[in-house]
Amino acid sequence: MEKIENNGIKSHLTNGFYTLKKGFIIRLEFFGGLIVDTTKNDYYSTNHEDGLFLIILEEVKSLESAYKIFQKIITDYQFDITQYKKFLHIVYNCEDEKFDLENYVNKFKLIYIKSKNNKFLSAPLDVTIYPTLKCQLKCEFCYIKNAGLKSQDELSLDDFKKILLQIKELKIPYLSILGGEPTLYKDIVKVIDFIGQNEIDCSITTNGFDLTDEFLNTINKYKCIGLVISLQSLDSYNKEVTGADAERIINNIKRAGKDIKINMVYRTQTVQQIFDMIEFCCANQIEYLGISLYNNPHEDNLKEIKKFKDFKRLKKIVEDYVRKKELNLAIRFEGCNQFFYYKFTTPKTEIEKLLSKCEAGNIKIEILPNGDVLPCVILDKDSFIAGNVFTNSIKDVWNNSKILKLLREEQIMDQDCINCIYVDFCNGGCPAKKWFNYKSLSIGRDKRCLGKK
Questions:
Q1: Residue 294 predicted with pLDDT over 90
Q2: Which of 66, 93, 106, 184 is the most buried (most CB within 10 A)?
Q3: Is the pTM above the cut of 0.85?
């Protein structure tokens, strides 16, 4: 994460044409401009004025035209384009088109004013869609099963497309398709084609049990779609916890034909099993391994605390192993409980605070096959349905849901938390755990906390 400061020096403005480079998204938010590099998962923030200029330039492309519009909204401000060159691509053989200056000024002035009046993001940064809840495996760590979500009719193809187009329009940088098992969704190939043709950045996470040639051939056509395959170990442990022979998944990984990522859910694997997975990734030119911590609000607090400590130790062991062997493998330790087991440098910028706190309702929503929106799939489904995308748009749900408002604004009242240096982004811990223990988000803290100060 990086904050870009404008030095107030206007560059020599010659007429040129620019577009954002592939993989970059620019939005204007309550704290200023937000630039997301989806290829590296990097975030950059700017002041409001630079953010405004960049979103104008993204639309009109002409530097001269963008400056004309900008000067009608913001006077006496010097914009320096040179510091944004790494985000921009110069377009050649392009000519200025006639445009209605007044309409553009009114449009972007409204966006600018709204952004400064907002108290939360204009749209999520991350949306997860569950097109089906069906699955042929029985994973012990399945959030859908453990959340008590019952089988629903599959998301229709038409509704799926409408949701995808909203995601593109709102410039939501991260889209995940989960399940259930996405490959069991009857229209998955048509959805992949639609996503690819609309150039929507997306990842599809599968158990890898049944990857047809049609599925693999289609997904391999599009660079904007990433394939993530879940594999818990290379040995019999995988079958114990999922019901699937590891060998079958491994064979499908080898025939996938594109850059893939492997994801493990850390539960009781040994360090050696983790090392074996690392070596497998390196031997098969897999450049990314995710190791996720399973969060279950219903589990015993002491067991969870031990798991957090084990995960912290595992992270150091794995990082040392990769460094000493000089392996070309990116390993990311993932999980929504990081504030429990990492010592943080207190976030300073608004985007750092957002990315450090619970994602639910702050940067993320999840959409079930029936259109219901959950801030997070582990939250109590009977109390935290934020809306429905079949009756309201994603934007309407995001802006007007009382449930999302509660998650963003409810403040912890526990005195230990109030006195803690992490309270601004931790806010007492996991909302699902607090709700499970107290039926409240404010009266008591998540008792799994390891950072009490």
A1: no
A2: 66
A3: yes
